[in-house]
Amino acid sequence: MTRDVVAGCHNSAETFSCSVIPAQQWVELIGQHGYPQGFLHFWAADYFRFGALDGIILPMWQHLWFVVYLRVYTMLVVLLLAVIPAVMRAMLAEAVFPFYIVHQTIIVVVGWYLLRADVAALPSFLILLAATMIGCWLFYAIGRSIGLLRPLIGLQRR
Question: Which residue has the higher pLDDT, 107 or 6?
Fold first, then answer.
């Protein structure tokens, strides 16, 4: 990665996020605009253009809308955590950022394949739910267990 590419990414976790999140915009460009290139070309040549591509401004920072519902979910989680043992709370607290990094990318990519396969709504929902939960836990578990990956997914070094 060049210095220009990671200019908006201030630490290793943000840099890793800058390489995960573009998959969502790539899928959107393929599905809605007929973008002809593969993901690696998109990421290297188009995502960090800081301009328009088929009317879409790249890079997209469309993750700000979550603030309102995040507050509601936080209050619900606080209530739930009151009944969860302390050992599990520590693990769940550590898993939050890795889950945040990867969840939407899993949903967008799996959803794209489900749409292409013309899967009905209820099975699509169930597959998306399962894929997101399994994918998030795997992402966290693998990143947590490999020391070099820990800082890339927002975890402290051991």
Answer: 107
Distance CA 32, CA 153 (A): 30
Phi, psi of 100 (to 5 degrees): -60, -45
Other CB atoms within 10 Å distance of the CB of residue 46: 20
pLDDT score of 30 more than 70 = yes
Residue for token pair 């800058």: 18
The domain spans of the chain are: 22-58, 86-153
Cα dihedral sign, 136-139-144-149: negative
Tokens 């605009």 belong to which residue? 33
Residue 110, CA distances (Å) to 4, 38, 100, 118, 134 in order:
30, 17, 16, 12, 12
Question: Is pLDDT at 42 greater than 80 in this prediction?
Answer: yes
Q: Look at residue 133 and tell me whether its pLDDT is greater than 50.
A: yes
Burial 60-85 (b: 16+ CB within 10 A, else e): eeeeeeeeeeeeeeeeeeeeeeeeee
